[in-house]
Write a structure and sequence with these properties.
single chain; about 150 residues; alpha/beta; Rossmann fold; five-stranded parallel sheet; 7 helices; 5 strands
Length: about 150
């Protein structure tokens, strides 16, 4: 069975209506015969950006410092946490531990000009034999061992 890695931006565009929501849904539907994987770093990113959006939309937080204050006062919004957990369960996403090796991380980040989290995602895919990533992030097209959809 094919293994596909689902990146943060696909999940985000499913959770929140955007101009990319229909494309994200179509990509998942067209590949529903595959096994879907993601990693802890993606869940981390998704929790962060979804929580920031939740507080920003309500006028509670504008940036990183005010987000920290909002979290200390209100905690994580139940809707955000349950939405993420529900989405992962509904799509039968397997959450993998991230590939953690400092030398490889530095080499891949520098060689392919990636943000550190993206380098970790690319290395995690390679470690688990996943050769395709569902993402809107064009940077992954520079990774020779990954095919990018769309």
């Amino acid at each position: 069975m094919r293994k596909l890695f689902v990146d943060t931006n696909i999940f985000y565009n499913i959770l929140f209506r955007t101009e990319l929501t229909s494309i994200a849904r179509r990509i998942l539907e067209e590949n529903s015969d595959a096994m879907f994987y993601t990693s802890m770093i993606v869940v981390n990113e998704l929790l962060y950006i979804s929580t920031a959006k939740y507080f920003r939309d309500r006028g509670i937080a504008k940036g990183g410092f005010s987000l920290r204050k909002a979290l200390s006062r209100y905690g994580y919004p139940r809707e955000v946490v349950e939405g993420i957990k529900g989405l992962l369960e509904d799509l039968d996403i397997h959450v993998l531990p991230d590939k953690q090796d400092i030398d490889e991380l530095m080499r891949v980040a520098i060689e392919y000009r990636l943000l550190p989290n993206d380098a970790i995602i690319a290395l995690t895919c390679r470690r688990y034999g996943i050769d395709t990533i569902l993402t809107f992030d064009e940077d992954f097209k520079r990774i020779p061992w990954l095919k990018v959809i769309p």
